[in-house]
Automatic annotation (TrEMBL):
It comes from Sulfitobacter mediterraneus. It holds the Pfam family YjhX_toxin. Belongs to the UPF0386 family. This is UPF0386 protein PM02_01180. InterPro entries: YjhX_toxin. NCBIfam families: PRK13687.1 (NF010240).
């Protein structure tokens, strides 16, 4: 499946144990997202539009109001990189 460089970067961080934290507006819609690596560093590439694309393709999922994590389908789309081969 074709995914952009930014989508690939975010999925790679999530595959290594990162998470996407989100904030909701009073009406329930998500208004801001931030992607954290497993070491706690903030990834600037994760925007709200990129988050929506990953969620629409079912590459990420949240259970019970917890931060978003990568799904099995998202793991299948991540290309191998030097630090996880």
């Amino acid at each position: 499946m074709n995914i952009s460089k930014h989508e690939q970067r975010v999925l790679h961080v999530l595959a290594q144990g990162g998470a996407i934290h989100f904030e909701r507006m009073p009406n329930g819609k998500i208004n801001s997202v931030s992607c954290y690596t497993r070491q706690g560093h903030l990834l600037d590439d994760c925007t709200l539009s990129l988050f929506d694309r990953l969620k629409k393709r079912r590459f990420i999922k949240s259970k019970g109001g917890r931060p978003y994590r990568v799904t099995q389908q998202g793991l299948a789309c991540v290309r191998a990189q030097l630090d996880n081969r």
